Amino acid sequence: MTDYFAGIPKIAYEGPDGDNDFAFRHYDPDETILGKRLEDHLRFSVAYWHSFASDGGDPFGGQTFLRPWFGPTMDHAKMKANAAFEMFRILGQPYFCFHDADIRPEGDTFAENTNRLKEMTDYLQGKMEATGTKLLWGTANLFSHRRYMAGAATNPDPDVFAFAAATVKTCLDATQQLGGENYVLWGGREGYETLLNTDLKRERQQAGRFLTMVVDYAKKIGFDGTILIEPKPQEPTKHQYDYDVATVYGFLKDFGLEGEVKVNIEQGHAILAGHSFEHELALAASLGILGSIDMNRNDYQSGWDTDQFPNNVPEVMLAYYEVLKAGGFTTGGTNFDAKLRRQSLDPQDLILAHVGGMDVCAAGLKAAARMLEDGMLEEARQARYAAWEAGDAPALLAQGTLETIADCVLRDNINPQPHSGRQEALENLVNRYL
User: Fold this and answer.
1) How far, in Å, are 111, 145, 307 from residue 269 at the CA level?
2) Which of 18, 146, 210, 282 could be disulfide-bonded to 14 (CB atoms 3.0-4.6 Å)?
């Protein structure tokens, strides 16, 4: 074990009136909301990479975090795992997520990477069995190493494509062994920096073939979880092929994978794409591809994906409203793809960041549940479109042509007048639930 978090108590629910920093005010995992335990609604997960692999560096400065498990050996990797599972015990969240490079040190060859990943998968399996913590999803880091500077699936070098595909195989095997409920593909370098050296059609075809192979192999090994793509619009490349939910859906349709793959949507990525989080969630739900979420926030004064812990209950409420309206998570959950600020150096900072994030999410989900249960927002939405359900409107949409509709407008002297969208009234309605 590790004494890194020594002296920090296990976090318990103490209610909204308490003044203990190391306690939940809104997150009571056993509270029943809409007939389900709050823990089962939220399905919280800790991101192994930000919590245990991040060194506090940013584009203008290097490492600020000094963790005892930082190092290149397998002993360091096991020390990191010990610290991770100690934090999981303190927080009590049911899940975690990882990339292969988070849990094992980089080797000199693919074989060495694979052997180290297998050793650490066995080690994590023992920790999971001892603690009951589960794997929400696994993934491969196909972006940090210099070999991926021009992409992985979309790389112009077939050897890089092959190395990436082989790596995903090992990561799917690890996810399967650990009972992971999802597998995520995050194309951190799947894009371009300049069109001057880019063949868009070729690279898109490579990405489609790569994803098809992932789906085929998952079926072959009996993986019964969900395959997810995480949309990301830019940063570090100028344009990425998985720009947003709509782009991903078009890509899936193009390669016949819309029934095989769903999306893991991150709040920060939605903002970078020029959308709201709730927009991306609502669109994914309407297309039948809503899978899981990465919960964080951006600094709105920055154009960067800052991966901060959530602290805005109104924003979170609108996001969970879309999740609840879609029926809630199945294999997905709420992964904190969020990291400490580089000045937050102490062990308790890592705990308190998650405590605050979990409380914000709980408060947001409970407010969303009240709004959904009352039904007033949905009633207003339905009323706005009610005319489409009456009279000749359904036939107009289903069987009408430009000629028949024009005849109808002339015959009935149709001269429509606009109706209020009532945006301010609906915004006031939403605020009642906070």
Assistant:
1) 34, 22, 9
2) 18
Question: What DSSP letter does each residue of 387-411 carry, written as one string?
Answer: GGGSTTHHHHHHH--HHHHHHHHHH
Closest to 7 (Cα-Cα) out of 343, 340, 347: 347
Active site amino acids: 99, 102
CA geometry: angle 375, 380, 383, nearest 5 deg? 120
Please name which of 26, 43, 54, 137 lies closest in space to residue 92, comparing C-alpha atoms. 43
Among 293, 219, 313, which residue's Cα sits nearest to residue 259?
219
Domain residue spans in the chain?
Answer: 12-374, 387-431
- Residue 198 and residue 148: Cα distance in Å, rounded? 15
CATH class of 12-374: alpha beta
Q: How many CB atoms lie within 10 A of CB 194?
A: 8
- The residues, any chain, with a CB within 8 Å of residue 136's CB and separated by 6 or more, are 43, 45, 95, 96, 97, 180, 181, 182, 292, 332, 333, 335
Residues 6+ apart with CB under 8 A from 24: 11, 12, 13, 14, 355, 358, 359, 362
Q: What angle do CA 12, 13, 14 make, to 5 degrees?
A: 110
Instruction: Give per-residue pLDDT as tens, 91-129.
Output: 999 999 999 999 999 999 999 999 999 999 999 999 999
- For the entire predicted model, the pTM comes to 0.96
Please name the residues in contact with 48: beta carbons below 8 A apart, sequence gap of 6 or more.
84, 96, 97, 98, 99, 102, 103
Residues in the chain, overall count: 434
